[in-house]
Amino acid sequence: SIYLVCGQNEKTDKPDTHALFSFLQLIQTISAVDKDDPLGGQKFFFSLAAVNPNFTVQDNEDNTARILTRKNGFNRHEISTYLLPVVISDNDYPIQSSTGTLTIRVCACDSQGNMQSCSAEALLLPAGLSTGALIAILLCIIILLVIVVLFAALKRQRKKEPLIFYNDEGGGEEDTQAFDIGTLRNPAAVEEKKLRRDIIPETLFIPRRTPTAPDNTDVRDFIHERLKEHDLDPTAPPYDSLATYAYEGTDSLADSLSSLESSTTDSDQNYDYLREWGPRFHKLAEMYGGGDSDRDS
């Protein structure tokens, strides 16, 4: 239960003699009823659990009691809420008793004793809980809510798959015009623009197998025979390749290579030594060395 007492004047912040309760002023009358036997009338007695310097209880001996003040004034800026434990006992043997706590608030009143304003702090405080306890409970609730929100956000972020774009080059590069994204989308175009193609012989060449050498044959001669067989085999890898060098990248800063050709002539070079490298280089020797007709002319 909450009962109100007038204290200081709210406007002047000074004690108002008309608004203050005097000594042994009646605040409220309380009563007790036995719900099990309300008609028979169980008799109850009222008393304080401990001596209180501010209030007292006067038993009326009719299951009611009066709450009286024990001082002339109350300052609501010093203490705005008082807790008054009251013990209620019956006349049975053994005596049974129960303790209830009355909450008494000090409010600002006018000169006529009418209440003007009261702090809502006492209305929110349950019996036995202080302001610090309520603040601690609120902080715990806020922390739990923050943890739940963070956990939900992290769980949602894990489920979201990142989107990665691969059609973008690094900033500041100068060769962005030479990059053709269509080449990646059309694999056939890559094969058509290939600058180097391996040429696999179409005719099947059956290498001539030399008879097995006797056990007393020199190992060196045996290796030379096998090496000669593979050199004469045109189908053995690596295959001849056709490379195209007439392509330059867009915005390429490389100069022309024509100066290399002007520095030498065909007469200055002798490519006959290419014939000594084996049958694989005969075609190259004919192209650069020329035939007998070229020498005669």
From TrEMBL:
Its main location: membrane. Keywords: Calcium, Cell membrane, Membrane, Repeat, Transmembrane, Transmembrane helix. GO terms for molecular function: beta-catenin binding; cadherin binding; calcium ion binding. The chain crosses the membrane at residues 133-154. The keyword Calcium applies. InterPro entries: Cadherin, Cadherin-like_dom, Cadherin-like_sf, Cadherin_Y-type_LIR, Catenin-bd_sf. It is a single-pass type I membrane protein. PROSITE patterns: CADHERIN_2. Residues 27-123 form the Cadherin domain. One of its GO terms (biological process) is cell-cell junction assembly. GO terms for cellular component: adherens junction; catenin complex. It is found in: Cell membrane. Cadherins are calcium-dependent cell adhesion proteins. This is Cadherin 10. The gene is LOC112652718.
